[in-house]
Amino acid sequence: MKVLNFGSLNLDYVYRVKEFVQPGETLAVLSQEVLAGGKGLNQSVALARAGAEVYHAGLYGKGGELLKQTLTDSGVHTEYLLSSEELQGNAVIQVNDKGENCILLYGGSNQCITEQQIEETLSHFSAGDYLVLQNEINHLPLIVDKAYAIGMKIVLNPSPFNEKLNDVDFGKLSWIFVNEIEAKQLSGFDDADAAYAAIHRRYPDLSVLITLGKAGSVAYTNGERCVQPIFDVKVVDTTAAGDTFTGYFIASVMQQLPLSDAMKRATAASSIGVSRKGASPSIPTSQEVTEFLNNR
Ligand code: RIB
Q: Which entry of 12, 129, 237, 243 is annotated as an active-site residue?
């Protein structure tokens, strides 16, 4: 069983600040780095470090060679990752003293995927293979429809949450990964159980994972409900915490770990990630996750 991640790649321009810049203010930053990121790339790296056989499809643009190299170095297959003449998609990220971030996203090459690339890529996958998606590339509804027709298991992290998602048929998905805010946007409810109940009424076959910030996360699948608290670590940078969780969780599900173990490994991986700087550079290896859990 293989996993295809049709997803974004971004150059992350990361600026460390004491506090986020305010309207009308000009702020000198403490430091600046350019790192490999993008929700798609981060999730592929997490999947690979968690031990999954992962293929990343998408488009990198001018100036984005570092991103392809990062995937290759992490053991991700890149034969379905094509290059584009467009400017590389990128993100401007402020990280404050509390490790919180705010992100501006420029789609660039990530928004130039063609129907032909979708057809060609999906022809290499079959029923039972996993497809991982986020909302940072174009043609999401088409990819979902075509992958569903093949019989792939489709996992969507609908982030950033916006009106483009209205055209995606959530009834064709196997899993969604959302935070509390996105769960409310989807269901109208603040409370996770109420949000899930509303989502379940509309899409009875959809499994749902909701991250709850400091309260941990909760998963609902096949009549099972599982809650996982966070691990207490010193937070340095929360960028890609959700991506790390997503990649580790999917890999664990593919490895047929029990739901509670999958959530524990995913939580441990993202806890290690937030204690380090950057998006993809912060994602731990499977061995680091095992050692972390053994020392708890
Ligand atoms: O989830 C974190 C990611 O969001 C960053 O790496 C940035 O590129 C944006 O896509």
A: 243
